[in-house]
Design goal:
2 copies of one chain form a homodimer. With 301 residues, chain A is an alpha/beta fold. Helix content of chain A is 40%, strand content 16%. Chains A, B: This is UDP-2,3-diacylglucosamine pyrophosphatase.
Chain lengths: 301, 301
Amino acid sequence: MPQRRAADDAAPTVPELTKLSGPLGIIAGQGPLPRVLAELAIAHGVPVHVVAIRGEAHEEVEGFSHTWIKWGEIGKLFAALESHACKDLVIIGGVNRPDFGNVRLDIGAIKTLPFLLSLAKGGDDHVLSRVVRFFEEKGYHVHGAGDVAPELLAQEGKLTTKAPSAEDASDIEAAFKVVRALGRLDVGQCAVVARGRVLAVEAAEGTDGMLERCAELRKVGRTWGTRPAGVLVKAPKPGQEERVDMPTIGPKTVRLAAAAGLSGIAMAAGHVLMAERDATIKAANESKLFLFGERWDPAAD
Amino acid sequence: MPQRRAADDAAPTVPELTKLSGPLGIIAGQGPLPRVLAELAIAHGVPVHVVAIRGEAHEEVEGFSHTWIKWGEIGKLFAALESHACKDLVIIGGVNRPDFGNVRLDIGAIKTLPFLLSLAKGGDDHVLSRVVRFFEEKGYHVHGAGDVAPELLAQEGKLTTKAPSAEDASDIEAAFKVVRALGRLDVGQCAVVARGRVLAVEAAEGTDGMLERCAELRKVGRTWGTRPAGVLVKAPKPGQEERVDMPTIGPKTVRLAAAAGLSGIAMAAGHVLMAERDATIKAANESKLFLFGERWDPAAD
């Protein structure tokens, strides 16, 4: 699998995109991924319609055929997809869980109330799997961004000038162990290990919040030493719904990792999205961090 | 085991303390535990000498026979223990890992340099086990605070007016799963689960830092809803060196848990230290939090 991804990355082609029967519906949350995916689709002659979640999606999606919806406007969401004949969907970009107390529901939402209430409980993966099932029961095909556009995925091996040291390699191994253990419990997708010690583990705060905490720990001298040490490891939760919750890294991740004094970032090759690959690698080289795609077997333990 | 602890708590006696052959050496880090333990020992006719780590231990230890040492003053440490004939030791109260770059070593420390260097790497448990072995190789007996003074340990069952709800109970169960999984990897001793979702997991930031983060997540609406929900679960790492690294809770833990909007705190009965039991329970009742001692089998998985 990582092999295939690496190959895809080496010679970017987008067979999956061109195979789509009709227009691609993009349900857009935060970050640059919705725009990047829309650009790729159009570049391959696939029309898109972006359904952008207000307060989450970036305004740049207005450069494409789009509809803004608020949390709870489920009716409006499906009307937009239907009127643009989108049967193929990609749900992309992080969202914050809304406070249900502040969500106004439209008619379409009220019709699906039992489903919506079922989202108020449980871990991310539990919730996202339900969302996917919800769309598929309505006859939509939900694709992963990496499936329709494999060149968005981190490839295997060293992506930067700098490579992991022997110390980094053992921290990487330890961090992958932690991430796998956490993933099985639907906790988070990443962890930071420095010189054999687990500095931080991601849960609801997200990767950025976790990295800011590592920078803080370093400031107050809770990490020993000042030279760059430690790695951020990012990988999907085993068996998680990768179509809607694939881990991502970008230039901001790299900047925060550098601010935390880390030595580099290792990712599950083929299972982590890099929307802004060039900018991300450039940022890593400038901060003398390594980016490394670890061969990843989703089934392994 | 929890049974025995519960019994000890019900009728506080300190057989272990009175069994000590000579004076008790207390190597004191942060918090009230060193003082509370010293008071207990003296109340049972056991003389103490406190070796207080500068910048970590509270000044109140100066109320007892004591010696202040700086990080790295290993020679001074052993001189103090010898001159006060302390062969029995309790190492108690958290410490921050020093930045080795800023530690001045005395002669005694330089003699033990290979040992000290071995501490610069690895997880907490790895490090603390080495510390214990280090003292025992020198002929000292290292005791857990809970072994010499069982009334310091959290007892089994409900400690507050409020009891866990059914929802709390399932969050408690989920959180214990997470803590056990993390403990096996020497990550941390506690986690917060709210309505089935893991909000936060402790690593190097410590319990207080983790709870402050939960309060932050709640403020920014990352936790859904505003009514108190979620539990803090605290338990030792499976197989950890409990003599020097037993989890603790106190009034501050309760205040931070309340600020994070949690419903209560569950602990591994007999394996969590409550230095200020009455103040802790009082704080919990005032904030309408529950404190619950879960029966804990260190061997279980």
